[in-house]
Amino acid sequence: MPSRPSLLLAAAAAAAVLGAAGPAAAQGPFDPSAPVGGFGAQPDLAGISDFALAGDDTGVLAGSASTADRRFPVAAFAAGEALAGAARAVGHAGDITSQPRVAVGAGGRAAIAWGEGHTAYLRLCTDGRCGAALAVGRSRLKPEPQVAMQPGTGRVLVLWRGAARRGAASGRNRLQWRITTTGRLGRTHTLGEFGDDPRIGTDAGGKTVAVWRPYGARSAGVRAAARGVGSSSSRARSRRPPRRTSAWS
Questions:
Q1: Which of 125, 129, 142, 208 has the smallest C-beta neighbourhood within 10 Å, fewest atoms?
Q2: Is residue 20 situated within a structural domain?
């Protein structure tokens, strides 16, 4: 069952989307449903994990499928107002520890991130054609990567449960993030905290917000940190919890 903070984050995102659509958009009925294949024959080992739609009808539906009890990430791409055929594999069968997450932008651009074993992976796609999978970073635990795309620029950010290189073994778990625009990954940046269920978003101006649940049974609430436009790498790699980090109880 989803945690309360996760449900609150999902509800807030849904409210924002519905508010942007306006009353007129909410009045029309849905078109008749249509099947989307490619998710395998074992529903308990597969399923939908994320869907994103851009203003020009660029969209991606992501999840996982299964073959011989082995899961692999899949994605179906929107063509106009409909998903084009069946979902297809975007990674090989293996130990899928974090379900795929997607972000889309205008011009058919899409980014898909998922966790396999202790590694976070990313694929960048244009008009349904995807480049090679990129190993974004490693984690001691499940990486739980999340992805966001800056409107207009195609700049992609990935946030995951990583591990810093310095510090005591018990204190090296940190949320980490990387940026790519052309398929070449930038350097890894480290936040000063660690958490579960991370989320990341960015706006057209480049402001980025990360949200997560504090790690550990004694921690409660949700924490958030913002990174402004033009922030230096040293500020992004805060060694202590950022002063502007807020706690929502």
A1: 129
A2: no
